[in-house]
Design goal:
mainly alpha
């Protein structure tokens, strides 16, 4: 059950994160406005369309998953679709907070910050998802390692497919 719970926790989160990348564009969340420090609040990569699409795709993935393996989803939450919705929101919020932090420490939009770029959406998803399911310390460690490696790999693929401007 250890690995099944990890997979069921991570899938909506990953779908939300990748859905935002694939569907992004148009109006930025910060409307190109500057914060008190003269820098953009989030940057050009955080858009309304991407954020809404990420939440929608992550939630939709939970709907598909509950229909494929309903007996297993209850090990995460009685209402797995609501769980998927929450972790999708958490993933988007984590990514937005990560972008906000990068702007504050003078890292330009699109430039990498080791670990934050790979794990910000996971932190947000775990925080909100923990309303339903609190992973063990070992599950969290596995999620961090899997997410770090998967994030690097799939961002490279998205870069090669010209869905992202940078490979991280």
């Amino acid at each position: 059950m250890f690995w099944i719970q990890i997979i069921l926790f991570l899938l909506p989160l990953y779908f939300a994160n990748s859905g935002a990348v694939i569907s992004g564009g148009k109006t930025p969340l910060d409307f190109n406005m500057r914060a008190w420090d003269g820098k953009r609040w989030f940057g050009k990569g955080k858009t309304y369309k991407g954020t809404v699409a990420g939440i929608f795709i992550g939630t939709l993935s939970a709907m598909v998953i509950i229909n494929l393996v309903p007996a297993y989803t209850t090990s995460i939450a009685e209402n797995y679709v609501l769980f998927g919705f929450l972790v999708s929101i958490g993933a988007m919020l984590g990514d937005i907070v990560g972008s906000f932090l990068k702007r504050r420490i003078n890292i330009e939009s699109g430039k990498p910050l080791f670990l934050l770029d790979q794990l910000d959406f996971l932190v947000g998803g775990v925080l909100l998802g923990s309303i339903f399911f609190v992973p063990s310390l070992w599950q969290l460690a596995a999620m961090v390692i899997i997410t770090f490696l998967a994030h690097r790999f799939f961002n490279w693929i998205a870069f090669k497919a010209q869905l992202k401007a940078v490979p991280w």
